[in-house]
Design brief:
This protein folds into two domains: 7-216, DHBP synthase (Alpha-Beta Complex), CATH 3.90.870; 243-338, Rossmann fold, CATH 3.40.50. The strands form two sheets. The protein has an eleven-stranded mixed beta sheet with strand order 1-8-2-3-7-4-6-5-9-10-11, sandwiched between helices. Strands 14-13-15-12-16 form a five-stranded parallel beta sheet, with helices on both faces. The chain has 339 residues and is of the alpha/beta class. The chain is globular, with a radius of gyration of 20 Å. The protein is 29% helix and 18% strand. The chain contains ten helices and 16 strands. It has helices at 18-27, 49-59, 86-95, 129-138, 158-165, 204-211, 250-259, 270-276, 290-304, 323-333, and strands spanning 7-10, 32-34, 41-45, 68-70, 100-105, 120-124, 142-143, 171-174, 185-188, 195-198, 215-216, 243-246, 264-268, 282-283, 311-315, 336-338. Bound molecules: adenosine monophosphate and magnesium ion. The site of adenosine monophosphate (AMP) has 19 residues, from strand 6 and strand 10.
Length: 339
């Protein structure tokens, strides 16, 4: 693709006139990366097919993997969907702005490539002041997948975005590190019984407290089976060195490390690093704070590719609350689970 000059707009406090520059780029059909509370998104005008195409091109994303559309106000929803089921409105009231993407029946107004030809559209209102300012200033629905090259972990800093997309996009709004650190929860509300297609920042129990029981899509799709979420069929990011998740404690991890040849790196909590007595582990945070472990995961995965290592042994964390999303991403990055 043609080489673009990529502006970087660093924003510490709002209001900031650089938001207008970024919004103008979006209005002109350009691609702009911006922080959300989950990960950095790569945005473009969701009503402009060429602008949306530029997202697919910059990322190298397969065309049949639809994009999430970000909105700054629920007032605009009826422009893009045929109707809003009651359960979906309840979820919006409870969790928007926030890390929940709701799949609704599309009315076909948005650019066709946003939804990859599906009759449904995934919508979300992000809970980040910069993202909301950009949405309000541009007055656009903004299609935005994660701002990484396809096959890399989602970016949690502007540096990650720059590393992957410099020269391929018009600009990056740098608002510091993102919070949640993994992508939004995706729930399909076009079904009789809503189904969680991807675990994320809003947990199953959070959702069930508002609308009652929901289904969970199986995380692995069998060959020849049509996935409910097109993204589910694509291989998730895995670093160059294989990751093995080791269930059980520090002793088990030590044994596994001793049995293999080559350099081993531990991807663990501070507590596990202490138990192992190693000082060169990749530390995700305290095991008692799963939110910070989750928030640090993608940066740690990116660091693995900078390291001289043959194998990564990762700790297995609790699947409670945000742990569900954490372990979903870690399991997708891993090649093996050792019981
Ligand atoms: P990303 O934007 O990279 O975080 O990925 C967005 C995820 O949402 C992908 O897994 C998509 O397949 C999924 N998604 C987006 N729109 C829809 C839709 N209309 N129906 C089902 N899944 C969707
Ligand atoms: Mg992504």
């Amino acid at each position: 693709m043609a080489h673009l000059h990529t502006d970087v707009w660093k924003i510490d406090t709002l209001p900031d006139t650089q938001i207008e520059e970024a919004a103008n780029q979006l209005k002109e059909g350009q691609t702009v990366a911006f922080p959300t509370e989950t990960v950095y998104g790569l945005g473009a005008d969701a009503t402009n097919e060429q602008a949306v195409q530029a997202i697919f091109d910059a990322k190298g994303r397969p065309a049949d993997n639809p994009l999430i559309v970000h909105i700054g106000s629920t007032d605009v929803l009826e422009k893009y969907v045929t109707h809003i089921p009651e359960r979906a409105s309840k979820l919006m009231d409870a969790f928007w702005p926030g890390p929940l993407t709701i799949i609704l029946p599309s009315n076909g107004t948005l650019a066709k490539n946003v939804t990859a030809g599906l009759e449904t559209v995934g919508l979300r209102m992000p809970d980040h002041p910069i993202a909301l300012a950009l949405l309000k200033t541009s007055e656009l629905p903004v299609a935005a997948p994660s701002a990484n090259r396809s096959g890399k972990p989602s970016p949690t800093t502007a540096d990650h975005v720059y590393h992957d997309l410099n020269g391929r996009i018009a600009g990056i709004v740098d608002g510091g590190r993102t919070g949640v650190g993994v992508e939004s929860t995706v729930i399909d509300c076009t079904l009789d019984r809503p189904m969680i297609l991807r675990p994320g920042g809003v947990t199953q129990s959070d959702i069930e407290a508002v609308i009652g029981a929901v289904d969970i899509a199986p995380s692995k799709v069998k060959k020849d089976e049509q996935p409910r979420s097109p993204g589910m069929k694509y291989k998730h990011y895995a670093p160059d060195a294989p990751i093995w998740i080791v269930r059980g404690g520090a002793d088990r991890m030590k044994n596994v490390a001793e049995e293999v040849a080559g350099r081993v790196t531990f991807l663990v909590s501070q507590e596990r690093a202490d138990e192992l007595g190693v000082n060169d582990a990749l530390i995700l945070g305290s095991r008692d704070d799963l939110s910070s472990i989750t928030s640090n995961l993608y940066d740690a995965l990116r660091q693995i590719d900078q390291m001289d290592t043959d194998l990564v042994l990762a700790e297995s964390f609790s699947k409670d609350g945000i742990g569900e999303a954490l372990m979903n991403r870690l399991e997708r990055a891993a090649t093996k689970v050792i019981e």
